[in-house]
Amino acid sequence: MYTVIQDIKSQNTQLDMHDNSVDDDLETLQHYCNYIIDVQEIGDEQYDEILKKVSDIIERICDSPKELCFKVGLLEHLGTEVINELHNVLQNMKDNAVIQSLQMKIKDMEEEVTQVKAIEQWIHYDKTFAETKVSEEVVAAIKNHSCVTIIGSPGSGKTATSQHVALIYRKQGYQLVPIDTPEQIITYGDPNKKQIFVYDDILGVFGVDHDKVDKLERKREMLMLVLENDSKLIMTCRKSVFKATEMLCTFQSTKKVSSFVLVKMKNDAF
């Protein structure tokens, strides 16, 4: 399309160059040409707006007096070619936007299916869960705090306890949302719903995951906004990982963040 516009401009050099309206229109055409080359996608409203403006420009050029529209037939042909090519380019851009939107929706649906399957598995395993002093402490703690972090050694029951407590809140009408990243709390957080999020191994599995620590720190304020409407967050962390990051992450200090509290698994000495 850029070549087509350049062809029109070369023809216009033989016209009366004092006619600024023709030059302005051609410059506008070139502007739109450059624009659609640079952008990756376009919405329906912008698509219709650009196509209408370009159509109006072509119509004005070809409806000008004959002495200002040298070789009208050629200009009409080039104008039609510009419109057709612009239409094709814009349509492709709009199609790409639709495809990307569908891909995002499919991804969200896949994640929701994964969450549902995880919850079904939790329900199955919870049938054999035995209430403990720690699970009672977590239930009491999460009642009065937005977030609870369960600290313990591998195999101490951190994950099972967090899932058990979350299922209790699910029965009370909370939407249960298993998550793997802090961003998912922001993505799935709904201010119109009471939700309980469960985040396993928040700071790393076998060692400190500095990327996770950094993300928690950066997203802390936004996470607290999501949890304002009586929503809850239960997190688990290995004792060794917790101690290694104790001075790095404000999520672990009840002195710094009053909305957070720690619950230590039984027989885990600190």
UniProtKB/TrEMBL annotation:
Residue ranges of coiled coil: 92-119
Domain Novel STAND NTPase stretches: 129-254
Any Pfam family hit: nSTAND3
Residue spans crossing the bilayer: none
Keywords for the protein's UniProt record, in alphabetical order: Coiled coil
Protein name: Novel STAND NTPase 3 domain-containing protein
Species assigned in the record: Mytilus galloprovincialis (Mediterranean mussel)
Phylogenetic classification of the source organism: Eukaryota, Metazoa, Spiralia, Lophotrochozoa, Mollusca
